[in-house]
Amino acid sequence: MTHRAYVLFEEIRETLDLLGTWEDRYGYIMELGQMLSPLPEEFKREEFKVRGCASQVWLVPQFEQGKPHWLADSDALIVKGLTHMLLSFLADQELSNIDEEKIKIAFGALGLETHLSAQRANGFSAMIRRVEEDIRKHEVSR
């Protein structure tokens, strides 16, 4: 999957702004989850599993022409939607521009933190840490 398979992050932000209730927003996030292509079984291995998520989440890093991409999946639809959102945000970023603070600022502007359960918020933070870890490993291997 390439980054073009994701809804643009700006479009996600605008859509969430237009939706009136958090029930509608959750519905949209789950729709985003349905758009995320299923991860082939051969990638559902421990090495790609995100630690710290109550749901099962897999992130498989790929790096093409200096830009990071991840194949991803989860067993929970809302988490798949959050994963789609994260990967959408990351899709057009250069490696040097990706850090936890920038991601948290972008997602904080969406108001998600006040509407996610503590488990989902912790899981989302674990995904962000995993992304940063994947980037560090890639930079060391270059």
Task: Please specify the SSE layout and strand pairing.
Blueprint (H helix, E strand, L loop, with lengths): L8 H10 L3 H14 L21 E8 L2 E8 L2 H15 L8 H9 L9 H24 L1
Provide a concise account of the structure shown.
The chain is mainly α and 142 residues long. It has helices spanning 9-18, 22-35, 77-91, 100-108, 118-141, and strands at residues 57-64, 67-74.
Notes on the protein architecture:
The chain has one domain (3-141): Alpha-Beta Complex (Sufe protein. Chain: A). The protein is 51% helix and 11% strand. The chain has five helices and two strands, in the order H-H-E-E-H-H-H. It has helices at residues 9-18, 22-35, 77-91, 100-108, 118-141, and strands at 57-64, 67-74. Helix 2 (22-35) packs across helix 3 (77-91) and helix 3 (77-91) crosses helix 5 (118-141). It is globular and about 45 Å long. The two termini are 23 Å apart. The relative contact order is 0.18.
Main beta sheet strand tally, sense and closure: 2 strands, antiparallel
| Uncertain residue ranges | none
Outline type: globular
Helix and strand string, N-terminal first? Answer: HHEEHHH
Q: End-to-end span in angstroms? A: 23 Å
CATH architecture identity: Alpha-Beta Complex
Remind me, CATH topology?
Answer: Sufe protein. Chain: A
- Residue-averaged pLDDT, rounded? 89
Number of helices, where a helix is a run of at least 4 consecutive DSSP H or I residues: 5
CATH uppermost class: Alpha Beta
Rg for CA atoms: 14 Å
Helix content: 40-55%
- What would you call the quaternary organization? single chain
Number of strands: 2
Query: Structural class given helices, strands, pairing?
Result: mainly alpha
Strand order of the largest sheet: 1-2
The domain count comes to 1
Our estimate of the beta-strand percent is 5-15%
